[in-house]
Amino acid sequence: MKIRRILTNNAVVVGQGSREKILCGKGIGFNTHKGGEVNESFITQSFVLNSNGETNNVESLVKGVPLNFINIADDVRKTCELELGKKFNSMFVITLADHLYSAIIRLKKGVKINNLLTYDIQNYYASEFEIAQSLVKKLSVQFKLKIPIDEAGFIALHIVNAQFDDKSSMDNAYHVTKLIQDILTIVKYHFSVMFDASSIYYYRFITHLKFFAYRLLNHEHPDSNVDEDLYEMIEKNFIDSLNCAKKIQDFILNNYKEQIDKDELCYLSIHIHRLVTKAIT
């Protein structure tokens, strides 16, 4: 493989035709030149570049991030794939490495950023938060820093975001969490009830809300196929849950200018009924 560009002593770009990828490894770009052959024994990570826009972004990030942070992020990717059973792309490694490096520099300077949604992230994304919390403990020891739990929340959002399509962003993931929080608040106040976060019904409701929120924020509207019989059954038997779902519908319309159709009202009503029934009994 011939080198097209040398990014750092530890990162080079190679390619064939229009297809390019970044190769990382200690010393892989040291004492070499454009057009030279890569020493494949140095390669520890390989990142395929999908477009010119992505190429520029990824190369800029790689140039600014030490190799040890890329290695840390790649280990997180492997843990996520093993524990969550999903594939994570190259951009996850690069953006997480950039976040971790920036966070460590910031914390060494004594600058802390509060994450107002840490508690909610911990509840809504328990598996992702557990991975993030484990990483924070390791980083605290490795860099001899007291890293606050809020950082685990930010890392967990990176992991959550990477499980959705490429149109998503960290900002989007943060807004998803805020929307879930707002919807749960509506349900809590409507029924004057607290929920058991360990309940399977709570887990199912949160899972439904995650995908609902991502669809909403990405302006995706699945084809509506209203089952009128189902709606009438809900209207007859779960009227209080339906009224709560309609409050959520109004909230979404007023704050996000998006319309929830009858299908979504049905699904929300059923989940709310199951959740509230189990919380009360």
Strand content: 5-15%
Distance between the termini: 65 Å
Across the major sheet, the strand order is 1-2-3-4
Share in helix:
55-70%
Question: What is the architecture of the largest domain at the second tier of CATH?
Answer: Orthogonal Bundle
Q: SSE string, helix = H, strand = E?
A: EEEEHHHHHHHHHHH
The class by helix and strand makeup works out as alpha+beta
Supply the number of structural domains: 3
CATH domain fold name of the largest domain: PTS-regulatory domain, PRD
Q: Say how many strands there are.
A: 4
Text of the CATH class of the largest domain: Mainly Alpha
Keywords: Repeat
Domain PRD: 64-169, 171-281
Protein name: Transcriptional antiterminator
Organism: Lactiplantibacillus paraplantarum
Walk me through the structure:
The chain has helices spanning 52-64, 67-84, 90-108, 118-124, 126-142, 149-162, 170-191, 200-217, 228-237, 239-256, 262-280; strands spanning 3-8, 11-16, 19-24, 45-49. By secondary structure, it is of the alpha+beta class. It folds into three domains: 3-64, CAT RNA-binding domain (Transcription Regulation, Sacy, Chain A); 67-162, PRD domain (PTS-regulatory domain, PRD), CATH 1.10.1790.10; 170-280, PTS-regulatory domain, PRD, CATH 1.10.1790. A four-stranded antiparallel β-sheet has the order 1-2-3-4, covered by helices on one side. Strand 1 (3-8) and strand 2 (11-16) form a beta hairpin. Helix 5 crosses helix 6 (149-162). The longest helix is centred in the middle third of the chain and has 22 residues, at 170-191. The radius of gyration is 23 Å and the shape is elongated. The N and C termini lie far apart (65 Å). It comes from Lactiplantibacillus paraplantarum. Residues 64-169, 171-281 form the PRD domain. InterPro entries: BglG_antiterminators (IPR050661), CAT_RNA-bd_dom (IPR004341), CAT_RNA-bd_dom_sf (IPR036650), PRD (IPR011608), PRD_sf (IPR036634).
